[in-house]
Amino acid sequence: MQTIKTALLRTLSLFIVWWALTEGDSSGAVFGAVVSLLVALVSIRLFPPGTYAVRPGSYRLRILGVLSFTGHFVGNSVIAGVDVARRLLLPRLPVDPGSLTLTTRLPEGSPRWLLANALSLMPGTLSVNLIDDQLELHCLDQRMPVTAFVRQTEARIAAMYGITPPDDSGAQS
């Protein structure tokens, strides 16, 4: 029964990817469904359900957490991009660059690296260094609530990986 559920889930997941890649064009839906089913069956043959284990230090992604983080990332990237553009186009708007060192609450490995890289991709912040749990950031305006923003991003990443970071502020200047 587990194999059938896994096959259906994998087939559906692959078909959704197929549908997105074809931009919802229904002319290839039957072909996409057949290919999705075949690929799912091959994947079950190669990776049977329950035969793989999560290694210590590795994390399983939570789909709702991924969606939440993606929305947070895209939304804040747009908002921050508009803010940076306004500061460049309107010189009267304040710019007070500086650096900030925070103690990240995320565990070592993928969660920390994702945090550092996500912050570098968002306008107004740049990850300068990540050593152990110390994250050094450059920010466009020190008066902005950078620490609060980093904590929000950490919380989204933690939810994505299904982990709970300790509740400490960890801010240093």
TrEMBL record:
Keywords: Cell membrane, Membrane, Transmembrane, Transmembrane helix
Name of the protein described by the UniProt record: Multicomponent Na+:H+ antiporter subunit E
Family, similarity comment: Belongs to the CPA3 antiporters (TC 2.A.63) subunit E family.
Record field: transmembrane: 7-22, 28-47, 59-82
Location(s) in or outside the cell: Cell membrane
Signal peptide (UniProt feature, chain positions): none
Species of origin: Halospina denitrificans
GO molecular function ontology, one term from the record: monoatomic cation transmembrane transporter activity
One GO CC term, this protein: plasma membrane
Main location as per UniProt: membrane
Source taxon at top rank: Bacteria
Pfam family, one: MNHE
Membrane topology: Multi-pass membrane protein
